[in-house]
């Protein structure tokens, strides 16, 4: 765990003390967009046209934000176009590393570097930033296109469609406002909410995160009683963004981040929905519980100083979900 300050690595833990014990996530630094024709996207600069073989993804299988990008890569048939390097799940004083000693950790497949921070330094030698995954790298310009997962998945949703012929759309125009509204609440209270609970260093900061987290879960449980997916009868980006947090919940957030009022398996609708998403072809292969469990319990020594990795529950994600019978008119588009 650490950050780059003017190009120099400092092994700092998050500064919660200056925020009353609250974890405040920093804003991602690289915000360019790949577009079909290389024109600029909603932020950053242009010059990143969709091309097969040009871009590379650096991910941690442990990380829910990186996981989103891997799901969109799978669902949008981008695997043959965008290759991937996977970091080691332990994130210690050197931050994310390219150590290959854990099964599935590939090392840096582009440059053979030792640390992810060296990729950030290649993009900007004087950079001040946290060194986070995912990173979307451009081989041609040798720079980072984006390190913001919310934007990377929006690029993946459409920018390469003319190359892959895959027209699945997880952001249908007419549903965009509702998706954004859902994302806002779910990001604040669930995706980032589990981190705000887990990294809190005062009771007050913990309470501020944990109560709204379970309020949102109750609200989602109710919502999924009458809708097959979050927005209705089709899977959207909002579902996938919630998925990567809930699939980790019972194994890590429940215990390690003290989100232990309830487990997801105790919510019949959320649990059925979670199984259905896990069973969508291509998705189960993106879920790596060995990396997830190792990363969380081992990396955060302020929370788990002895680095004891517990036995964790094994919910049966492959069990029939029954959601198709419940919502006969729905379809997977
Ligand atoms: N806004 C970023 C957040 C990514 C992020 O925080 N990733 C975590 C891993 S789950 C990370 O790399 N943390 C390292 C650090 O904060 O030092 C995104 O969604 O892409």
Find the structural class using helix and strand composition: alpha+beta
Q: Please report the first level of CATH classification, the CATH class of the largest domain.
A: Alpha Beta
Shape: globular
What small molecules are bound in this structure?
A: glutathione
**CATH A-level architecture of the largest domain:** 3-Layer(aba) Sandwich
What is the radius of gyration computed over CA atoms, rounded to a whole number of angstroms?
A: 19 Å
Work out the helix count.
Answer: 11
What is the compact description of this entry?
With 333 residues, the protein is α+β, with helices and mostly antiparallel strands.
Molecular structure report:
With 333 residues, this protein is an alpha+beta fold. The chain contains 11 helices and 7 strands. The strands form 2 sheets. The protein has a 4-stranded mixed sheet, sandwiched between helices. A hairpin with a 2-residue loop joins strand 1 and strand 2. The chain starts with a strand and ends in a 7-residue tail after the last helix. It binds glutathione. Glutathione is lined by residues 1, 28, 60, 63, 65, 95, 130-134, 147-150.
Topology:
Layout: E1 3-5, E2 8-10, E3 55-59, H1 64-75, E4 83-86, H2 117-123, E5 129-130, E6 135-138, E7 143-146, H3 149-158, H4 161-164, H5 176-191, H6 193-199, H7 203-226, H8 237-256, H9 268-278, H10 289-299, H11 323-326
Parallel strand pairs: 3-4
Antiparallel strand pairs: 1-2, 1-5, 3-6, 6-7
The site of glutathione has 15 residues, from α3.
What distinguishing features does this structure have?
three-stranded antiparallel sheet, Glutaredoxin, four-stranded mixed sheet, Glutathione S-transferase Yfyf (Class Pi), Chain A, domain 2, alpha+beta, globular, 2 domains, 38% helix, 333 residues, binds glutathione
């Amino acid at each position: 765990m650490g950050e780059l300050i003017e190009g120099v690595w400092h092994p700092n833990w998050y500064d919660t003390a200056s925020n009353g014990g609250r974890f405040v996530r920093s804003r991602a630094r690289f915000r360019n967009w790949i577009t079909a024709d290389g024109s600029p996207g909603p932020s950053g600069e242009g010059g990143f046209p969709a091309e097969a073989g040009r871009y590379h993804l650096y991910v941690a299988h442990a990380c829910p934000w990186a996981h989103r990008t891997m799901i969109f890569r799978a669902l949008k048939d981008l695997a043959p176009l965008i290759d991937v390097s996977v970091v080691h799940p332990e994130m210690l004083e050197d931050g994310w590393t390219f150590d290959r000693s854990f099964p599935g950790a590939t090392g840096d497949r582009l440059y053979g570097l030792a640390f992810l921070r060296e990729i950030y330094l290649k993009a900007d030698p004087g950079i001040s930033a946290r060194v986070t995954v995912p990173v979307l790298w451009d081989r041609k310009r040798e720079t980072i296109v984006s390190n913001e997962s919310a934007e990377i998945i929006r690029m993946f949703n459409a920018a390469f469609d003319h190359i892959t012929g895959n027209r699945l759309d997880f952001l249908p125009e007419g549903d965009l406002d509702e998706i954004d509204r859902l994302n806002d609440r779910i990001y604040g209270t669930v995706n980032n909410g589990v981190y705000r609970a887990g990294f809190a260093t005062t009771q007050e900061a913990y309470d501020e995160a944990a109560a709204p987290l379970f309020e949102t879960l109750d609200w989602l449980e109710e919502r999924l009683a009458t809708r097959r997916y979050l927005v209705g009868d089709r899977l959207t980006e909002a579902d996938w963004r919630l998925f990567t947090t809930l699939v980790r919940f019972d194994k890590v957030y429940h215990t390690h981040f003290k989100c232990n009022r309830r487990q997801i398996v105790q919510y019949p609708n959320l649990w059925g929905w979670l199984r259905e998403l896990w069973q969508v072809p291509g998705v189960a292969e993106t879920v790596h519980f060995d990396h997830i469990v190792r990363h969380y319990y081992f990396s955060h020594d302020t929370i788990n100083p002895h680095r004891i990795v517990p036995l964790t529950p094994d919910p049966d994600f492959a069990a029939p979900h029954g959601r198709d019978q419940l919502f006969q008119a729905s379809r997977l588009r």
